[in-house]
Amino acid sequence: xxxxLQWTLIIAGILAIALLVGFIIRQSRTLQESRKREAKTQAxxxxxxxxxxxxxxxxxxxxxxxxMEYSEACLRIKGLLDHVAPELLEQTPFRVFQEVHxxxxxxxxxRARQETDGRFVEKMDRERLAVEEAHADAIRRAATAIRxxxx
Length: 151
What we know:
Residues 17-146 form the DUF2489 domain. By secondary structure, the protein is an all-alpha fold.
């Protein structure tokens, strides 16, 4: 084999090795950045979940201390449990949050409530209070249980 061909092949081999090393380094950096992003995302999700669990506990304490309406607490706790532990909504005693939500979800809230006729709002309030009264004991028991539940 001629000397010039040997040197050409050696240079081509070194060039191929250099390109492969560059590719490996670039892939390694991409992988590290991806791992950092994943770790950051997991930390954010963990913090968000802990915040939701804390909100559930605060709402439960408010129910236990009669500091908020049971219907509002049920709607809020149900919404938070949908993200934190939706399987709890199918278990006793937590099922009451889902039941009250289902009974009240058709009622207007916020701006829609303000724009609704006053007599209709009064009728809805009476219905809401009747639901609260019918489920009051179960709601209090569920609030105590959810406050002590290990998430």
